[in-house]
């Protein structure tokens, strides 16, 4: 059966542009039963030379230097947004008005109000949409979801998660510009809260349900940095570290921490969930394993054991290699592309949609508000 082409227009050619492009290129090889096939039609960037170099490397047919022209093209079906956070809303709303499908990098927006406008736009246009929270697509994380939904953990008491990095510790690191926009509050909206904790929260909501309220603290350790675009030393507006407590809607307690000042950690993302019957935990550094503790085991052998998530009956793994051979970070984007293509075929939403990602944004806003007020804040 001939596959239907889905013409992709990519906006942005940085790190995430590479991960998404790899997903588009590999998905048909490993998910051959999908009705749609991505076509790398055009990549858009501000610099023509860099956009052309990216297009040549990854196989895009053409380039644009104005995203509005990309959206206006009749030969583009889906807009993939890999730009800094402050442009997500404008591009998404324009793409929705043009009837384009939209795949947007996380976080959804700069704040909840902006996110609500994005949700209204895609829902009014009726266009398929998704946000790239790729860690849901790690087979071990998807297996955790399956075990929870099957009731194997019973009532949930605790959810704890952290995301630790160390790459911004140097006081000489500037803020702003193409490579360091995450340190510029005007481009990013927030620091580790929107960049790292957003991942933790999306996973938490997916596994454990909604968050009711939060109490948080944040810290900016380096108060001023030189700005790449102005050449001047300017105040730093993003949070370098954040920790918060929360109540989930199901009555469980949450404990979250993220920082870019944890020396020795490049991307330590973990979560642990404790239930009345069992507990599970996961570590991005060992992403193909899910640790599981079942209190029903005989006391002589009761303890944590490792589930090696490579068998064909585990989420996504039948598409890959033989049991025992693991996959990695880049495969999560292949999985999200596959899920998006399947959603177009079936007419069902590809989670997380804009509306679902807005919930994560609302929690992030509540966290930042709580840290500022030093009070408990309800999630709107």
Return the CATH class of the largest domain.
Answer: Alpha Beta
Question: What is the string of helix and strand elements?
Answer: EHEHEHEHEHEHEHHEEEEEEEEEHHE
- On the 0 to 100 scale, the average pLDDT is 97
Strand portion: 25-35%
Strand order across the biggest sheet?
A: 16-15-14-13-7-12-11-8-17
Major β-sheet profile = 9 strands, mixed
Approximate helicity band: 25-40%
* Class from secondary-structure proportions: alpha/beta
CATH architecture of the largest domain: 2-Layer Sandwich
Number of domains: 2
Q: What's the CATH superfamily of the largest domain, by name?
A: Dihydrodipicolinate Reductase, domain 2
Low-confidence stretches: none
Number of strands: 17
Q: Kindly, what is the distance between the CA atoms of the first and last residues, rounded to a whole number of angstroms?
A: 47 Å
Please, how many helices? 10
CA gyration radius, whole angstroms: 21 Å
Give an overview in words.
The protein has 2 domains: 4-134, NAD(P)-binding Rossmann-like Domain (Rossmann fold, 3-Layer(aba) Sandwich), CATH 3.40.50; 137-378, Dihydrodipicolinate Reductase, domain 2 (2-Layer Sandwich). Helices cover 33% and strands 25% of the residues. It has 10 helices and 17 strands. A 9-stranded mixed sheet has the order 16-15-14-13-7-12-11-8-17. The longest helix is centred in the C-terminal third of the chain and has 20 residues, at 354-373. The radius of gyration is 21 Å and the shape is globular. The N and C termini lie far apart (47 Å).
């Amino acid at each position: 059966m001939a596959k239907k082409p889905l013409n992709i227009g990519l906006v942005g050619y940085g790190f995430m542009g590479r991960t998404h492009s790899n997903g588009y290129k590999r998905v048909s090889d490993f998910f051959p039963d999908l009705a749609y096939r991505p076509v790398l039609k055009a990549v858009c960037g501000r610099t023509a030379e860099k956009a052309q170099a990216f297009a040549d490397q990854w196989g895009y047919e053409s380039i644009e230097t104005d995203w509005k022209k990309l959206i206006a093209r009749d030969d583009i079906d889906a807009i993939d947004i890999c730009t800094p956070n402050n442009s997500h809303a404008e591009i998404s709303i324009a793409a929705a008005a043009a009837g384009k499908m939209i795949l947007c990098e996380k976080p959804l927006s700069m704040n909840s109000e902006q996110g609500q406008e994005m949700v209204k736009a895609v829902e009014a246009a009726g266009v398929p949409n998704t946000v790239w929270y790729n860690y849901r697509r790690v087979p071990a994380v998807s297996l955790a979801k399956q075990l929870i939904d099957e009731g194997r953990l019973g009532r949930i008491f605790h959810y704890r998660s952290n995301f630790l990095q160390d790459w911004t510790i140097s006081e000489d690191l500037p803020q702003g510009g193409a490579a360091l926009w995450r340190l510029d509050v005007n481009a990013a909206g927030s620091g580790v809260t929107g960049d790292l904790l957003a991942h933790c929260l999306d996973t938490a909501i997916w596994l454990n349900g909604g968050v009711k309220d939060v109490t948080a603290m944040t810290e900016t350790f380096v108060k001023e940095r030189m700005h790449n675009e102005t050449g001047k030393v300017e105040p730093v507006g993003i949070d370098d570290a954040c920790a918060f407590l929360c109540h989930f809607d199901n009555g469980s307690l949450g404990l979250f921490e993220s920082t870019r000042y944890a020396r020795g950690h490049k991307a330590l993302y973990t979560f642990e969930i404790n239930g009345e019957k069992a507990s599970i935990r996961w570590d991005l550094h060992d992403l193909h394993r899910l640790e599981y503790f079942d209190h029903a085991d005989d006391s002589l052998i009761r303890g944590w054991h490792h589930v090696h998530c490579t068998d064909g009956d585990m989420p996504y793994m039948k598409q890959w290699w033989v049991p025992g051979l693991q996959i990695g970070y880049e495969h999560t984007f292949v999985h999200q592309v596959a899920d998006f293509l399947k959603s177009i075929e079936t007419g069902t939403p590809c989670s997380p949609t804009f509306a679902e990602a807005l919930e994560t944004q609302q929690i992030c806003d509540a966290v930042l508000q709580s840290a500022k007020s030093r009070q408990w804040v309800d999630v709107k």
